[in-house]
Amino acid sequence: MASEHFDVIIIGTGPAALGVAFRLTEKQPHLSILMIDKETICSGGLLNDCKQNYSYPIGFAEEYWSREEAERLLPLVEERLQPVFMERSNLATYRRRAERIGVTLYDIRQAHVGTDRSRLLIKRLMDELAGRGVKVILGCEVTEVDEQPTGAVITLADGAEYSADSLVMAPGRKGFGFLQRTMEKLEIAYIDNIVDVGIRVETRIENYPIVSDYYDPKFYFPERVRTFCTNSGHARVVQERYGDFSIVNGHALSSEKSANGLVNFALLKTIGLKDPVRSGQQMAIFLGRLASEIGGGKPLMQRVGDFRMGKRSTAESFNEDLYSFKPTCPVTAGDLGLAVPAKIMRHIWAAMKKLDTIVPGVLHPSTIMYYPEIKMYANKPAFVDAYFRVSDHIYMVGDGAGTSRGITGAWASGIRAAEGILKGR
To answer: pTM for this one?
Structure first.
């Protein structure tokens, strides 16, 4: 029997979960709400780097979002996150160059908090929810989700149980597998046939000067390749652990910190799988493990100069001559061609060459390519209504559920789920 009952339980404390909690407490402050997360601090994109995009379609899964719906909710996201927007300039020049070679550069309203200041934002948000009476449990993992005729029940790793009239599952990208297991257990139909696979590029800022005009330029190339999560100022590449392998990602500190003269960004290819390969998650795990095996338990890195010459990078020569800056994430120097599937590498390299035409310099021999960068946010549950409900009492939102691809889209997804809960009460 559940130890305590709530009107709403929210699994997760990232942007989607916060979107649910804030909307519910704004509209019906008397509701009893529990938020629970296996992490010890509010997680998700808010914690690491905290880059925000406030223009459709960036950050939104377009199959679930119209421009009108996104633009209806983005002001509500902005009201809570209180972004300081970054200036953009000289876009006409870059867009003209891009259009000539079949590339699209989106003009996006952006804000950046920085990894060093993100905890201050998180504390402000969580303190406000606490003041509204929301109960928060951190450092406790939900292991089981069950649905009953009158609501949902969750079981924690320590055996404790809680019940609710409505349950919102928003565990983020790292909760991808947890969502899948829950859907299989509850016989909720879903599709998992898409994965984003790519590299993270690191170079000197003079080789990618567009970041002085546009903090996180959003280039979309042919063959479903795009730039993602550009970092400059005090920028660094980091490792993130996923089970038994590591992937790479990029962070940047706030403008209050001194710059290190480097910039990094991802180039990702979206892959749609067809029978007999049907699981994007399983493909991602396979590619991550393969890279880890080749890299001796670490991701791989290779200088562009070595790649163009068709030879592997080595630790002994990685910082010699033209290779004039040290990697911020010193993983295993090697040959990406041994780990990246040929078709994926071919399309990413074609995008790199087009990008070098638009922003000359990015293909300098010293530029580093790290692999793998993988985004596992492609669950597509069979939603039963427009509010991301998957069954009578359960909703699934955020990057892990495929309703968004970033902070603002995830927060907006949470608002929509909250509106569904409110409509049903």
So the answer is: 0.89
